[in-house]
Structure formats: structure tokens, C-alpha cells
């Protein structure tokens, strides 16, 4: 019974994290973190890309000069419209960081940033239509 329960939740996790809207959001969020303007424009529109990068200085303050070792995402809420052409996500971006001389693979702390994203499906491709993070409030 325990194996069935674990299998069910494991399948649900994979299903959520490989759905098209979540994958598009992850590409967008990664590009924002890496200051990759081209990557952001590929999965959003130019206006949203420009607005997002205007707030990069605020975003950098969250990390306080720490080096990001790795990042993963926890999908808190995923709401897909009935027509399947729009989606709303609430996701927590979790980064393990190393401050100063810390060199372990897990770093010495984690930084959690909550994002809200609205996505729209255009020609079978998901695009980020709206994005809110603490730097944009």
C-alpha cells in the first residue's frame, strides 16, 4: 500500500513538473536568474521581458552577493483554464547558496522566492504573459 501511495504521488509530481506551462515557466525563471534576455524573450513577449529586467537590481539584493549552487522549483498551485489555453501558476523558486568561503555542495543556506505567473498557449506553445516576484511589487 505504501508503495502504491508513493508511486501515485511520484507520478503526480512528474506530471506537474513536465507539463508544458510549468516547463515554459521554468525556462523563463531560469533566464531571469541568469540575466538571459534572449531566453526570456523566447518564452514571453518583449514588454514583459523589458519590465522584468528593469527590476534586476532588486532581485540581486535577495541573494546578498551569495553564489547560487543550484535551484529547483516547488509548484504550489497550478490552475489550467477549461479551454486549455491559459494557466496560472504559483511557484516557489528555491536556491541553495554559498556565502563567502562555504564550499559544500548544499551551500550554507537556501533562499526561497515566490513567483506568480500567467501563461497563455499560442500555436501549441506556452508563453509567459504575466510574472510577479518580490522585486516587481
* Whole-number tally of structural domains: 1
Strands across the major sheet, in which order?
A: 1-2-3-4
Provide the gyration radius in Å: 16 Å
- CATH architecture annotation: Roll
| Terminal Cα span | 45 Å
Q: Care to count the β-strands?
A: 4
Classify the fold: give the CATH topology: Nuclear Transport Factor 2, Chain: A
Q: Helix share of residues?
A: 25-40%
- Poorly predicted tracts of residues: none
**Tally of DSSP helical segments:** 5
Strand proportion, as a percent range, falls in 35-45%
**Broad shape:** flat
Biggest sheet, open or closed, and with what strands and sense? Answer: 4 strands, antiparallel
The overall average pLDDT, rounded, is 86
Structural class: alpha+beta
Give the CATH level 1 class: Alpha Beta
In N-to-C order, the SSE pattern is HHHHHEEEE
Amino acid at each position: 500500500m505504501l508503495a502504491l501511495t508513493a508511486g501515485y504521488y511520484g507520478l503526480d509530481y512528474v506530471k506537474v513538473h513536465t507539463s508544458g506551462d510549468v516547463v515554459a515557466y521554468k525556462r523563463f525563471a531560469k533566464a531571469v536568474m541568469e540575466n538571459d534576455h534572449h531566453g526570456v524573450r523566447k518564452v514571453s513577449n518583449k514588454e514583459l521581458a523589458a519590465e522584468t529586467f528593469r527590476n534586476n537590481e532588486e532581485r540581486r539584493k535577495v541573494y546578498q552577493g551569495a553564489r547560487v549552487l543550484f535551484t529547483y522549483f516547488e509548484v504550489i498551485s497550478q490552475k489550467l483554464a477549461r479551454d486549455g489555453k491559459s494557466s496560472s501558476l504559483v511557484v516557489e523558486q528555491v536556491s541553495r547558496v554559498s556565502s563567502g568561503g562555504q564550499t559544500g555542495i548544499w551551500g550554507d543556506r537556501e533562499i526561497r522566492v515566490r513567483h506568480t505567473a500567467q501563461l497563455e498557449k499560442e500555436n501549441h506553445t506556452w508563453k509567459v504573459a504575466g510574472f510577479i516576484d518580490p522585486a516587481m511589487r
